[in-house]
Amino acid sequence: MFFLTPVLVAIVCILVVWIFKNADRSTEEKRGEAGARVEARPWVDEDLKDSTDLQQEEEEEDVDEWQESEESVEHIPFVHIRYPEKEMVKRSQEFFELLNKRRSVRFISNEQVPMEVIDNVIKTAVVKDPDMKHKIREIIEEEEEINYLKRMGHRWVADLKKLRTNWIKEYLDTAPVLILIFKQVHGFAANGKKKVHYYNEISVSIACGILLAALQNAGLVTVTTTPLNCGPRLRLLLGRPAHEKLLMLLPVGYPSKKATVPDLKRKPLDQIMVTA
């Protein structure tokens, strides 16, 4: 009969432990790879990072580069106009009717629009030079073709067919005005140190919503576009600093005479609001 010596028993135990550890490690690696495949989102623009990403970068950078927040900010009286209840109902209904007519219009006339209107709704510079608009179109169409053929995937491309849209963006040339909205992931204090802009993406997104309402109120149309993976090249083209990231591009103008939009219906109120 064969008997195991203490030394042999110890070796066998070590081998068993080693086998189990390697099996666990292999399982974890497979899970990690599977998780990476699930988390992989090729359509996500790497140029769009929110404050949460900034916080991680901040921890790795020299703390001396960042400006401490001001201890106090002066407060001033708030001026508010209070309307009678009937007037409030009337204004809210009129605003709803106005915004309910807003649609994404991809067929935009080349008719010029009053720049004073654009200045009033945005209070910033816009792109209206034909050559610059065409360069923007070339960059976007080049990247969009890759998006449609490789990055976005079959399901996304199939879902877009009903909107009759593809990587050809003729409206970038025909629209008299292009508004490119950049978010600043951080700013700079007077002493040159970096200043954190908290919630920069959601703040700029809210501003975009207000801008869309203002354009609709002025009688102009646009289509909200988010040029995927175009941000760095467009930023360089327009000479914008590295701490600005492209969030949205709006071609603005009058609708063309033969403009069409998808016949989509808005959700009823009971599907978008819950009251308790």
Concise description?
The chain is mainly alpha-helical. The protein has 10 helices and 5 strands, in the order H-H-H-H-H-H-H-E-E-E-H-E-H-E-H.
Fold and architecture overview:
- The chain is mostly helical.
- The chain has a domain of 153 residues: NADH Oxidase (3-Layer(aba) Sandwich), CATH 3.40.109.10.
- 47% of the residues lie in helices and 9% in strands.
- The chain contains 10 helices and 5 strands; from the N terminus they run αααααααβββαβαβα.
- The strands form 2 sheets. Strands 1-5-4 form a 3-stranded antiparallel sheet.
- A hairpin with a 5-residue loop joins β2 and β3.
- It is extended.
- It starts with 5 loop residues before the first helix and ends with a helix.
Helix content: 40-55%
Class by helix and strand content?
mainly alpha
End-to-end gap: 79 Å
Question: CATH topology of the domain at 110-262, anyone?
Answer: NADH Oxidase
Q: What is the number of E strands?
A: 5
The helix/strand order is: HHHHHHHEEEHEHEH
Q: What integer value in Å does the Rg equal?
A: 27 Å
Largest sheet geometry: 3 strands, antiparallel
Strand content: 5-15%
Q: Choose one word for the global shape.
A: extended
Give the low-pLDDT segments: 36-40, 49-56
Mean pLDDT: 78
Number of helices: 10
What CATH architecture of the domain at 110-262 do you see? 3-Layer(aba) Sandwich
CATH hierarchy, class of the domain at 110-262? Alpha Beta
Question: What is the strand arrangement across the widest sheet?
Answer: 1-5-4
